[in-house]
Amino acid sequence: MKSLVLVAAMGLASVNAYAVDIAGLYNTGATFAAGEQDTNYALSSTSGVADEYGYVSANGSFPLAGNWLENTTTSSWLTPTINQGESLDPSEDGLYTWTMTFDLTGYNAATASFNAQFAADNTAVVYLNGNQIGTSDGFSSWSTFSATAGHFVAGLNTLSFEVINQAQGSGNPTGLRVEFLSSSVAAVPEADSYALMMAGLGLMGLVVRRKNAA
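and the corresponding structure tokens:
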């Protein structure tokens, strides 16, 4: 009987062994050098000065000199223009939308989740597939955001950060910083895995019936 329980447990475990990190979730600036464009994050803006993608910033000069959180090897700030300290939006608030997509094809979207943190100049709201999942109100400390089952969809998912840069006559740069702390999703089991799972459940049911009959 113990061997039956072991086989059943192996059948269930084999189906749960497919959990992996979510591919396509990138920290800002993580795979690019300072001054390069981060093509993982598309950028659009109401100001008209932003390029299609933002630029990776560098430590040691404004605004990363006692103002914004300092860049690390884990993530860096992205700015709309290659001049990271460029003053923008002198008379009206600017809206900068940073967008990243990732594909869950072949995975069970109902099992997906992630935890992350971000900062923005000046404020930001983050959306996953149009649903708000977090807010940030500053550039000198982190704000957390996360997503669980119900936020994700099968196939292509869209994560967007809407950053508001408040109007100011001078000394008014803007940027975004994102770090993913953890993520997980389970692959859709193959047909033979389903068969093994059903066999495991059947054996467990048999064990229970025999135990009740004893």
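(Above: one complete record from the training split.) The longest strand covers residues 107-121.
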